Amino acid sequence: MSHVSAPSADSPSDSPREPRDLAPQFVLPLVVRIERDAPPARTDALETAARAVLVLLGDDRARGDGEWAEAVRNWEDARIRKVVRRARGAEWRRAGTLPGITVTGRSAEVRVFPPIPLDGWPKDLAKLQVSGTELDDPEPPVAADPAQPVLWLNPELEMSAGKAMAQTGHGAQLAWWALSDADRTAWRDAGFPLSVRTAARADWPRLTTSGLPLVRDAGFTEIAPGLTVAVEGVDRVSSLPRRQQP
């Protein structure tokens, strides 16, 4: 597989003369539901955010002449910024009235919205909290399914859940870009199965030097510049079983 990377997927570049920095800038909003008495598990939230990005990219409204297609193209022509906000109660219900797609995991609910201009946030999303989103795993995650793509997090980094959700969303998008149309369809038909896990320190050098899709963060929020996610197993999607419809 050819090497695919995002030098600074969610942040402005240090080189403003790059063509994509001169283009109008858009952002992909994601909102995670976090109720006080029933927060989602961290790993499930990260996986659900990654799937939410894929669900939007694979939606007919985001392709061709679809109603979201122009916004998606404009966003992908610039920086593929993603911002994760959190909501509960009435905030979550109001967010659900805006155009978008809600993706549900085992315990997590994430709503993804079509890209918007950086300064064009809808009022009901703009007032949601963006920083300090923290979640825990009640139990250690089980081993990643070897039949599915795995988004490996850099074991040297500590990120808030919101930051990590954005990074796994970047990783999922790079995986999508690396696939043929046929493999994209196969992954979508399977329900976009994937795993998010923290890599073992001993494995991280191999993962980042094997030509895998890599996410690089510019270091403007929370962490220093550098690699955050390595995407392994994108070539496995063609063998995934088709999801059974209810």
Automatic annotation (TrEMBL):
<dbReference type="InterPro" id="IPR023476">
    <property type="entry name" value="Pep_tRNA_hydro_II_dom_sf"/>
</dbReference>
<protein>
    <submittedName>
        <fullName>Peptidyl-tRNA hydrolase</fullName>
    </submittedName>
</protein>
<keyword id="KW-0378">Hydrolase</keyword>
<feature type="region of interest" description="Disordered">
    <location>
        <begin position="1"/>
        <end position="22"/>
    </location>
</feature>
<dbReference type="GO" id="GO:0016787">
    <property type="term" value="F:hydrolase activity"/>
</dbReference>
<feature type="compositionally biased region" description="Low complexity">
    <location>
        <begin position="1"/>
        <end position="14"/>
    </location>
</feature>
